[in-house]
From TrEMBL:
Classification of source organism: Eukaryota, Metazoa, Chordata, Craniata, Vertebrata
Single GO term (MF): microtubule binding
Biological process according to GO: mitotic spindle midzone assembly
Organism this protein belongs to: Nesospiza acunhae
Gene coding for it: Prc1
A GO CC annotation given for this chain: cytoplasm
InterPro entries per record: MAP65_Ase1_PRC1
Name by which UniProt lists this protein: PRC1 regulator
Length: 216
């Protein structure tokens, strides 16, 4: 019986030693995780060694998951940011990628990506509308795209067109140029029509002959 009791005591002391080592390791890891996650120091409630070890281990797992979740979200936001910056020709969001982002950092990043998405949709809509008008004007003016930019606007896939601020301004400039040429042509046509009418009157051209020419 004494031998059995001694063995039980030895097992309990061995278990206590393992639990104390685990508690020390968990506390150390918790301190590291709290710093990385920018949380306050972790406080434990008074309890048995066994319960304390279980609580600390559970907290470590919870904080490790928070760390993984934040890093995964940061990676996803960076991928979205990179794709948007490529098409908008803007600078990437500034954030320290070497550390775990804070909740405020992630919130700012989310709002930044959302604003870029809104900007992309606005520019895409502006590009599509201007492109449609430019194509109609080119057809009306019998104008063939003769610069690389004009060919990109008319021929390139809409999804591949770079929606940079410079490109949008160049697009507006091209549209204004074409509208100016059409307005000039219309003014010349109006002047020529007026001269034709005046000549018809002076030459007393019959109405039937006038009507046959009017379709042109």
């Amino acid at each position: 019986l004494q031998s059995l009791l001694d063995m039980m005591v030895a097992e309990e002391e061995s278990l206590k030693e393992r639990l104390l080592k685990s508690i020390a390791l968990c506390r150390k890891e918790l301190d590291t995780l709290c710093r990385e996650l920018q949380l306050g120091p972790f406080e434990t409630e008074e309890s048995t060694i066994l319960q304390m070890e279980k609580n600390l281990r559970t907290c470590v797992e919870v904080l490790q998951k928070q760390k993984r979740d934040r890093k995964q979200e940061l990676k996803a936001l960076q991928e979205q940011d990179q794709a948007l910056c490529d098409i908008l020709c803007t600078a990437l969001f500034t954030i320290d990628t070497g550390s775990v982002p804070s909740l405020d950092d992630l919130d700012r990043y989310r709002r930044h990506v959302a604003s870029l998405n809104t900007l992309k949709e606005q520019r895409r809509e502006e590009f599509v509308n201007n492109k449609r008008q430019i194509i109609l004007l080119m057809e009306e003016l019998d104008h063939t795209p003769d610069t690389s930019f004009e060919r990109d606007v008319v021929c390139e896939d809409e999804e591949a067109f770079c929606l940079s601020e410079d490109n949008i301004m160049a697009l507006q400039s091209l549209l204004q140029q074409l509208e100016g040429r059409r307005a000039l042509n219309e003014a010349v046509c109006a002047e020529l029509r007026a001269r034709i009418l005046a000549l018809w009157e002076r030459l007393q051209i019959p109405q039937e002959q006038r009507d046959s020419s009017a379709v042109h």
